[in-house]
Amino acid sequence: MKRLSGADSFMLGMETSKAYMHTFKVAIIDPSTDPDGWSFERFYEESAKRIHHVPMLRWKYLDSPLGLNHPYWVEDPDFDLHYHIRRVACPPPGDHSALCEFMSAVYSYQLDRDRPLWMEWIVEGLADGKVAIVMLVHHAYVDGVGAAWLMQQFYQTQAGVKADSPPAYHPPPLPSWLTRLGWALRDWPEVMIGNLPKVVLGLWRKSQLERKRKALGLPAHPSAAQMHKTPINVVLSAGRTFVCDSIPLERFTSVSKGLGVTINDVFACCVAGAMRRLLTDLNYDPNTHPLIGGTPFAGQRPPGMEGLGNFATLDYCWVRSDIADPRQRLQASHEANAEMKQHLKEIKEAGADLNAVMQILPPWGITFIRRLIHGKGGSVSFFGNLALSNVPGPKEALYLDHWKIANWFSTGQIIDGTAINITMWSYCGRANVCMLIDREVLKDGWGLFRYFVDELDALGALTNQKENVA
To answer: Do 215 and 395 contact (CB within 8 A), yes or no?
Structure first.
């Protein structure tokens, strides 16, 4: 039995029948690297042998009686791998667009809380002979950095590594309601009261930082409370649009080095430019104000928790969709990111980052926040106008036995009020950009993806101009 942290519990508590809190982890396998080719049966056998390297995949959720404490993960005595791994064929013509359309459909599926919170679709029949491993895994288990670590436990950096015989799986019976009630009462002082003084002190320090900024004449740091409602800020429907594709990472590094900014600045600028064009398409004037983006940051993980739990925190930055000129927008994005990093450093030192605050938030408090946001009709959201994330993934190719992982895509979730999530996850020299969107906001996500690429092209042209002048 393991108790969820406040951040893990938040991921469970914010979920509804339309606001799904699972993430996508998508591996594209190249069977041509194996002399024997592809075999679903062999893949299933390998998965069964390796699943103990990712023990959380056999954990199910149990609540804490009366909402007295955070929920629990317990080993599922009825775990059935056959339930979690499904075999399908990609709809014709089996190209990447068809795969994305399939993934859009399967994302719109709430995971069964009576079982471990993940599902894997093995998608065969892709036009180029590759196979997609499309995994839905609930965000309550682990954040992006932890998922990257787990990925490298299941897969290997060398081809042909065979899985050992797995240890026997003999989970204990599920704890009774009364047992869980006893645990909740026993641990309540440590979880709630024990963390309360640190959080209160942290919030006081945070208020002092805000007063200091105001005294220095600095503008207020962006927050979710400052967001303006736009056509992308709605209560979620049940449907999703998902698109993803690869861009050479070198294109981002070239702009970064040539124009003296970070890769994340380039990413943020491209997001802002793409959103500017999307808002125009939706008959909303983007010049009125910048957007506010919710951005997760990796937190410090305790020893032994490398692949478990949510230790990331969240901060906000200005997404400068209000600036038309790409050079000016890049500079403004650089300044916004630098300010956000400094602000995050200050509130972490104060002990008032969101991860710390969530530790004392009881389940009923999370429910209250969720209902409040839902009732506002999209005018407020925990993530701001949109969620954006840039995660560094493995630099070396990974393998499952002799099968090479040719590519890897990953994205987070969207919630009421924040109907767009744009995530960039690097893998082996590729910048893999994923866009998850509420289907009622945008039925075809490829237009927004092309806008993102156009903005990168514009920054590349600026870089070439500077090199030619030099």
So the answer is: no
Beta partners for 49? none
Q: Which of 8, 113, 118 is CA-nearest to residue 56?
A: 118
- Per-residue pLDDT tens for 298-316? 767 777 777 777 777 788 9
Distance in angstroms (rounded) separating the CA atoms of residues 456 and 215 = 38
List alpha helices for 61-164, DSSP H: 81-84, 96-107, 144-154
Pairwise CA distance, residues 359 & 191, whole Å: 7
Q: Single out the residue of 7, 237, 20 nearest to residue 113, CA to CA.
A: 20
For CA atoms 244, 247, 249, 255, the dihedral sign is negative
Question: How many C-alpha atoms does 52 have within 13 Å on its Cβ side?
Answer: 11
Delimit the domains of the chain by residue range: 2-183, 190-394+410-469
Highest mean pLDDT among 176-185, 219-228, 340-349: 219-228
* Confidence tier at 210 by pLDDT (50, 70, 90): confident
365 backbone dihedrals φ, ψ, rounded to 5°: -70, -40
> Does 454 have pLDDT greater than 60?
yes
pLDDT for the residue 199: 65
User: Would you say 59 and 93 are in contact if contact means Cβ atoms under 8 Å apart?
Assistant: no
Q: Is 283 exposed, middle or buried (0-12, 13-18, 19+ CB in 10 A)?
A: exposed
Dihedral sign for Cα atoms in the order 152, 27, 413, 452: positive
Q: Which of 70, 84, 96, 139 is catalytic?
A: 139
| Residue 414's pLDDT band (cuts 50, 70, 90) | very high
Look at residue 459 and tell me whether its pLDDT is greater than 80.
yes
pLDDT in tens, 190-199: 666 666 666 6
> What residues pair up with 432 in beta bridges, in sequence order?
246, 425
Six-digit token string for 302: 């305790």
Phi-psi region of 67 (alpha: psi -120 to 50; beta: other; left: phi over 0): left
139 assigned to active site:
yes
Q: H/E/C letters for each residue in 141-209?
A: CECHHHHHHHHHHHCECCCCECCCCCCCCCCCCCCCHHHHHHHHHHHHHHHHHCCHHHHHHHHHHHHHH
Report whether pLDDT(75) > 80.
yes
Q: For the structural domain made of 190-394+410-469, what CATH number should be given?
A: 3.30.559.30
Pick the CATH number of 2-183 from 3.30.1300.10, 3.20.20.140, 3.30.559.10, 1.20.810.10: 3.30.559.10
Pairing mode of beta strands 131-138, 22-30: antiparallel
User: Cα(first)–Cα(last) distance of the chain, in Å?
Assistant: 62
